[in-house]
Amino acid sequence: MERIGLIGAGRAGTAVVAALAAAGQPVVGVTARSSASRERAARLLPHVPVLTADEVCTRADVIVVAVPDDLIHDVVRMLPLTQQQYVVHLSGAHGLTALSGVPAVPVALHPSMTFLGEVISLDGVMFTATAPDDARVLVERLVKSLGAQVQWVADEQRARYHAGLVHGANHLTTLLTQAIDVLREAGVADPAATLGPLVSATLDNTLRSGHHALTGPIARGDVDTVAAHLAVLRNRTASTYAELARATVELAAADGRLDAETAARFGEVLNEHPARAAGEVLERDRTGEAPR
Q: What pTM does this model have?
């Protein structure tokens, strides 16, 4: 078995390496600079010594670099790595370029999971990897030891891959937060309980059936209902609703659920609504510039 070392005791790195340790992989050291990192390392990796970066590299065969994305390149270039070692980062957006210029075999390995700083099962989680051919056996063995799955993405597609995850997961949090606020403004006492079953069913259906899972006023062609919604929504939520409604109209029209006339009526209602412009003005007033 390869000896694992961890550079940076952040949420993702500590959780992944703790899962590897639980699967029987020897973890020989971790770096932890802040008090929060030291506390996390003590809690999730209680039997792993906190060492300097040089000490971790001296003891490990596989060095997992779990630092903020923008620091990966600078950090790995300062590590005393050798050609016999593997250096792995956990960034979704970055590929092998972030690991360029070092002698160790580079691996970009991203788990499609959110981490909150606790021990977590990675059973069934999909890891997306980019690596040279001579690292594939190692990657597949480590991932499968977790009960997880691995898929391979070309280096030049890493940003596109990560954009899909962020759009589907992080932006879902934004969307649901806005929806909860709207329900609360409407006097709903427990917005989460109201949304929960509907969102869960929609998520399951969409993951299983894709765009065929679409329901609601746009799928039904209820133009007046959408107009009524836009009339009562405000600021950034109105802008979000209008932009997503435009995309939903395109989706429903493309698969034949909306005829051209109804799609055009939706377009008129959405184009007349000032939500998008108002949202841009609000953002410009706050920051001094238009959003990018």
A: 0.85
Alpha-carbon dihedral of residues 221, 223, 229, 233, nearest 10 degrees?
A: 120
Tokens 């954009």 correspond to what residue?
A: 163
- Was domain 4-153 assigned CATH 3.40.50.720? yes
Measured CA to CA, the distance from residue 42 to residue 50 in angstroms comes to 9
Domain residue extents for the chain: 4-153, 160-287
Tens digits of per-residue pLDDT, 241-272?
999 999 999 999 999 999 999 999 999 999 98
